[in-house]
Amino acid sequence: MASNSPTPPDSTRRSERSRRAIYDAALALVVEIGYPKTTIEGIAARAGVGKQTIYRWWGSKADVLLEAFLDLGEQAARAVPQEPEEREEREEREGRAGEEGQGIPDTGDLAADLRLVLRATVDELRDPRFEAPSRALAAEGVVNEELGRRFVAKLLEPQLQLYVDRLRSAQEAGQVRPDVDPRIALELFVSPLAQRWLQYTGPITYAYTDTLVDYALNGLSPR
Fold first, then answer.
1. Which tens digits make up the pLDDT trace of 182-196?
2. Which CATH class is domain 13-60?
3. Range 104-222: architecture per CATH
4. Which of 46, 83, 163, 175 has its CA 20 to 30 A from that of 189?
């Protein structure tokens, strides 16, 4: 005879819902009231969980925000913009149909590919959902070395590696000198953008990042 007892709740699914609610709460509060005023108690209340739930998974609000931001970064990485025609051509050429957002587009035009991705970065840097937690983590990472190293290792380095891979592909195609170190070369356009954004030294625009690509690839010497 079949049992009529209710199915026990799925603790894994419940935990994932709670974790997602905590991510969303932490990111939302940092945007709304700023990092200094954001507390574990506030995150718990916003997420509808007990603060003991948060402390069971994380040791501090910085840890919560870092993991939430890493999750946000992973979502963004899966959404690298490409025109439909370019995406289809790339998937056919590389034989990896369906693997969208796994790297910087490789259309054969290095300058165009870099401009595309840097423009997407501009959009992200100007998005309050990204900007507030990113600035908070950057500031906290200055005084909390362990957190700063984790932020770099888990989020920044994987993103920088995408540039390294694209520049190496350009080297193989003869578009970049073989003696160029891609890890150093990428800093010609990534680092100025980061500095301008972090220190408010100038506007963050498509025109600015397009110019960075032009200067990085073509140099400053007369043509």
1. 999 999 999 999 999
2. mainly alpha
3. Orthogonal Bundle (1.10)
4. 83
